[in-house]
Amino acid sequence: MPRHRCPLSPPRLVLGLLACGAVLAVSPGASAQEAGAQDTDTQETDTQSAVAQDAVAQDAPPPPPPPGLPERAVQAPSPFVVAAPAPAAAQPSWFRFRAVAELGFLAMLSHKVQFGRDGTYFDYVAQGGQDTLFPVARFSAEAELFRHHQVVFLYQPLELSTEVEIGRDLRVDGLTFPAGTPMALRYGFPFYRLSYAYDLFLDPKQELSFGVSLQVRNATIDFASQDGTLFRSNRDVGPVPLLRSRGRVTLNSGLFLGYEVDGIYAPISVLNGSDNEVTGALVDLSVRAGLPLVAGTEAFVNLRYLGGGAVGQSDPEPPGDGYTRNWLHFMTVSLGAALGSP
């Protein structure tokens, strides 16, 4: 019986199977590449869609505000917003004003006067009843311009009246008050002072200023027997130029320490151009410590030395011969308050 032979010989069959396997191995890789290409196309499409949506969103108007809220509350912030300037109150003011008052007591350290070359050098403390405390007050108004310039007007009342019986003869401008005479003594020395100073510091909590003052004295010195039969009076009104300085430092706690001084020592002829051979001096020096209260107000305690006087020959005015010697040294302790713009 004849045998049928396979159309593919074994070698050809093997080659065919290998070819089929190669085709099958290559086909999945191609499919993966095609799938990757499709995914890339999809991502690019999605990215373009997102960019288009963002562009539309930027051109679109903002959403309406929720009910009950003003429209400005939901407006988109602008990239060109400029910060608002600080409030004007936070900047140093070009003008400030304050009023200052002090109230306390005055004690005599030393006070002696003589009128006439043959007059008695009278001790007010030992013989004139000024060995006690006297009330004292002081008032001033201050203006500050452009932070540095200070103008101060001061009024200092000073009226000392005593009644004593003198223990020895007292001679004043050629008149003798016999020992044992009941006396009414008056020493009035109120003064007015106008000052200008320049503060070196810009910080209002610190101060170091220098300037000048012009003081107007208004002196009245009376010696009178209580029965009215014997009387002598010396009166004088005149200008007194002074040099001035004031300082202050404020601690972190708010406590402040300060000083103030007005003074001069010079011949009277230099000060007023006269030919009087009188030398005069005046020192008004104080130190203080205080605390701020509410805005623009402060309270302080003040210790002050007030001293000065004059000695020499001036033009005679009857019944006196024009010779004067008058030296005083006062101390005051006072409580003060200042009220003004912050």
TrEMBL record:
Keywords from the named record: Signal
Region (Disordered): 33-73
Bias (Low complexity): 45-59
Signal peptide: 1-32
Pro residues: compositionally biased ranges: 60-69
Name under which the protein is recorded: Uncharacterized protein
Native species: Chondromyces apiculatus DSM 436
Lineage: Bacteria, Pseudomonadati, Myxococcota, Polyangia, Polyangiales
